[in-house]
């Protein structure tokens, strides 16, 4: 680990850092600038596009008054929260089962769950549309609440399994000796000790739900049922007119919740992310 | 990803099996199955079944609203003669593979910077992750406007500085369009590589560095001989994951170009979407997506093996 | 005559609609519609209690049209004692929605775009009787309706016209380029003349603009007519022979490639349907192919009518093989898995009565072209001379897939953007011959 004591070394670190930050954050700055400009300014090519000459909230007002943005936000929240809850529930069960229990097929299950990465939504969406149609779930929250976990459970299970394994077996064994049932052990002992892992898995699942696009695009057709990414991309272009200001406003506002929630759990998100790479 | 953990577990299980008494085993096995059930049912209905349904569909000439008949491998062979499909496959390869070295390099740079005692390191870490955290469809919309043929601020700036005369055709020129989508993909992936490599850097025991310094190695030599070997594993795993995920991409391309201009940025996902949902050819679209499977399998198995080896 | 009650009043939008239609007019419409329904002996649908009629349409560009359609649907519901859901989806969502409706039900009345009546022929109720009634009342269908509305001699939905595109241009730019009578609109140009104007305009810093990207409207609306006007077809009337790579078209495509460099905004290969609107409205281009949306947007601008006054329309230029517009009729159809076919039929019969339909049609001031000959002479056309030329478009209407049927092969070719990509490849590489050969190969595979 390098310790920068010279002014020069500090510059060697801070200047590249500034460059990286500008590069990585510029699009969000841009979205902000455009969203606070009146439409006529956006279309005025003589004005400097990099900052706001006349500040206005009209794009945001338009977003809330003339589009179904509020519905999109609601849908995305509900779907993300319920899918995440469902996934975490299933993943805790699976993770614990694979970590601690011996049962027929457990070896195969472990690899099987990993193999799920072979079937991403882009591979499954065509037949999936048929399944959702047959179950008559088109244009309902359930279409997404039931399908998102398939993308979340594999990773979350693996993550939680790893955490459960780090809990000393002795604690559980002595509880077993004391006559506790395994379920009680899971709930009273293992879970409280795995809170970091659960938080990591939860925040991971939540950000993935928010980011999902393809299934939401195909399964939700009416404006008031869409999620934010899909609604922003498809409904802010009326016939052939693009509402740039509101489009950027929607994109920015749509990013805020997940960025906000993530910011509280950065540590957990990062440890979840690196678990995949480091722990291997 | 999970197999390494499983291996260790199997050893554990053997041990635990010997400690526990016989009557627990029964409970254990039935409890185990019970716990697996909720997740398994979801995965069976919404993952396994669609997968096999997809295989079936790809062997028929199903269209939207018209049930299809079995036609064997006709869709697959037909695609092999489809120019646009060739282009799509080629585009996907380029897109998935070419972006990786850039993501790795820039991620490495970011990791090296963050691996220092700097002020505000926590907020900074939160901020630099944003391209990865924020929904791709939304950040791609930002880039969509930044690359707009009329309103691009980049074009504006370059014209103001007198570097060019007319707006840049970012998304309409073949080379520029491919570059644009690769760039947005790289931009999105830098945080992922950065944070993962950072974790790896921080896992390097400081004694190794100190030892090398004592031996007279300079910073660069230390980097090459101490740091790189330690993070080789992470780089490999992160890169493989990145290839697998990029292969299965959709929203980035859909928002930026929808596969245009003239199919030059089509990838498997977007082409299948166009054929299936606009061309109504469901069977053909299913076949397109299934062509992805062997490639995904190849990289996944490679990843699996690599992780087992380094375990 | 049914009195309009407070609830109905509240369901009417607060502001005046885009083009100044007042609430009073809309109320009058509703009341009139109700009166006619009552007087016209509204059929007794006793079993219509507790039924829900699901109507799915695309969003209408003119907000007033959407409001009227919604209000009329509610009006019908009250008359028939049926709950009515009127959904308006954006264009790209309609496809998936139809697929879902066919598979799982839930849609009774659906608005179909051209070719879709062919594509989903197996899933639509035969509406020939009802359609012919509408035609008889209206003085007969226009020819383009016969070409695009009939599927093997039957109507699988009642045709109701479509919105069409043509060439919009800046009068001042055209005058500077030496075009006579540019302020009168409706000029009769050949493609050569049009390209010559483009060259002049580009020299002045205001090129023409055209989308050659992968979007549903403008690219197809431009490229197909140019192809037809240059003596080429996707396929012959035997539905098999590809007549795409002809010498006249190659010659014409080369001309276009040259014109692209000389007179067009060359970023057009990345444009979608909205890019030319933006470019025109911000003064970057002087002419483009578009629907009436540019003109409407210019009317709403805060510039004292400057852009609106400077905008006019003309038909597509003529080529060696004539003048064409890619154009077919939309139809209102009923899915045959609907549980409410009778009610749906009653709704459509009611809506197509001139007293109802014409109000919806007129509020669009020409954005929606007419389906019956009587409306060709409607006084509405006199309201705004700038829109006058639109009513000529149906004469030149031809549908994708010509001269074969507008069936799934035509649809596949269009959704693969084969014709559009031929143009895009040609301007990118400068090699029209190569692009044509590519396009021909693709078409051959589809029409095997």
State the main characteristics.
heterotrimer; A: 280 residues; mainly alpha; MetI-like fold; 2 domains; two-stranded antiparallel ribbon; 14 helices; 2 strands; 75% helix; 1% strand; C: 448 residues; alpha/beta; D-Maltodextrin-Binding Protein, domain 2; six-stranded mixed beta sheet; four-stranded mixed beta sheet; 20 helices; 14 strands; globular; disordered N terminus; Sugar ABC transporter permease (chain A); BP-dep_ABC_trans_perm (chain A); MetI-like_sf (chain A); transmembrane helix (chain A); membrane (chain A)
Report what the structure shows.
The complex is a heterotrimer of chains A (280), B (311) and C (448). With 280 residues, chain A is mostly helical. Chain A folds into 2 domains: 7-56, no CATH class; 66-279, MetI-like (MetI-like fold), CATH 1.10.3720.10. Chain A has helices spanning 7-35, 39-43, 58-66, 69-100, 106-115, 121-134, 141-165, 169-177, 182-193, 195-211, 214-219, 228-235, 244-264, 266-279, and strands at 237-238, 241-242. A two-stranded antiparallel ribbon of chain A has the order 1-2. The longest helix of chain A is centred in the N-terminal third of the chain and has 32 residues, at 69-100. Chain A starts with 6 loop residues before the first helix and ends with a helix. By secondary structure, chain B is mainly α. Residues 1-26 of chain B have low confidence and may be disordered. The termini of chain C are far apart. Helix content of chain C is 45%, strand content 12%. Chain C is α/β, with parallel strands linked by helices. In chain C, a hairpin with a 2-residue loop joins strand 4 (150-151) and strand 5. Chain C has 2 domains: 6-163 and 330-370, D-Maltodextrin-Binding Protein, domain 2 (3-Layer(aba) Sandwich); 166-327 and 397-446, Periplasmic binding protein-like II (D-Maltodextrin-Binding Protein, domain 2, 3-Layer(aba) Sandwich), CATH 3.40.190.10. At the A-B interface, helix 1, helix 4, helix 5, helix 6 and helix 7 of A face helix 1, helix 2, helix 4, helix 5 and helix 6 of B.
CATH fold-level topology of the largest domain in chain C: D-Maltodextrin-Binding Protein, domain 2
Structural Rg of chain C:
23 Å
Count the helices of chain B. How many?
Answer: 15
Superfamily (CATH H level) name of the largest domain in chain B = MetI-like
Helical stretch tally of chain C: 20
Layout: helices, strands, pairs:
The complex is a heterotrimer of chains A (280), B (311) and C (448).
Chain A (H helix, E strand, L loop, with lengths): L6 H29 L3 H5 L14 H9 L2 H32 L5 H10 L5 H14 L6 H25 L3 H9 L4 H12 L1 H17 L2 H6 L8 H8 L1 E2 L2 E2 L1 H21 L1 H14 L1
Antiparallel strand pairs in A: 1-2
Chain B lengths: L2 H17 L2 H37 L15 H7 L2 H32 L6 H8 L1 H4 L2 H11 L6 H8 L13 H29 L3 H9 L4 H29 L3 H6 L11 H11 L3 H9 L1 H19 L1
Helix pairs in contact in B: 2-14, 4-9, 4-11, 9-11, 10-11, 11-15, 13-14
Chain C lengths: L5 H5 L12 H17 L12 E7 L4 H18 L2 E7 L1 H14 L4 E4 L3 H4 L8 H10 L5 H7 E2 L2 E2 L2 E6 L2 E5 H6 L14 H13 L4 E2 L8 H12 L17 H17 L11 H7 L5 E4 L2 H7 L6 H4 L1 E4 L10 E2 L3 E5 L6 H11 L2 H9 L5 E2 L10 H4 L13 E2 L9 H8 L2 H12 L2 H15 L2
Parallel strand pairs in C: 1-2, 1-3, 8-9, 11-14
Antiparallel strand pairs in C: 3-12, 4-5, 6-12, 6-13, 7-9, 7-10
